[in-house]
């Protein structure tokens, strides 16, 4: 739907400062739904529709979340720009962890295959006496 000229996108951006991208998408979709509830043939979303939806929403993020993510990214950038240390054992340890984590999955898959094979084998044994009895 088109946006009415009375919609101030800068004001909506200021009012939704802590909103995530998904929340902003939801806000826009809901504003369109509000417009359609008023008039099923509506082709414009007005400022009033955005405000109606905005008043019913609270952002998922807090200022503390933003500060945490910001400091995390700064630390990540600092670590990536720092001279790297040799990682002799790091990869080996990670590979061992991955191997240990995949053992239960592998055993589960093998067990399932054995179960299926045994079930097929036992089912085929049930047919053997019938075949022998008929000859």
UniProtKB/TrEMBL annotation:
A Pfam family recorded for this sequence: AAA_lid_3
Domain of life: Eukaryota
Annotated transmembrane regions: 98-118
UniProt keywords, alphabetically: Membrane, Transmembrane, Transmembrane helix
GO molecular function: ATP hydrolysis activity
Domain AAA ATPase AAA+ lid: 6-51
Keyword flag Membrane: yes
Name under which the protein is recorded: AAA ATPase AAA+ lid domain-containing protein
Organism: Coffea canephora
């Amino acid at each position: 739907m088109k946006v009415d000229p009375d919609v101030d996108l800068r004001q909506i951006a200021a009012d939704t400062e802590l909103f995530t991208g998904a929340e902003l998408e939801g806000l826009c979709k809901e504003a369109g739904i509000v417009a359609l509830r008023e008039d099923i043939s509506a082709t414009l979303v007005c400022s009033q529709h955005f405000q109606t939806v905005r008043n019913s929403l609270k952002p998922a993020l807090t200022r503390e979340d933003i500060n945490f993510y910001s400091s995390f990214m700064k630390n990540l950038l600092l670590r990536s720009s720092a001279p790297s240390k040799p990682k002799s054992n790091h990869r080996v340890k990670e590979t061992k962890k991955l191997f240990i984590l995949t053992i239960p999955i592998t055993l589960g898959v093998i067990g399932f295959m054995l179960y299926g094979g045994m079930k097929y084998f036992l089912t085929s044994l049930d047919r053997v006496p019938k075949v022998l009895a008929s000859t």
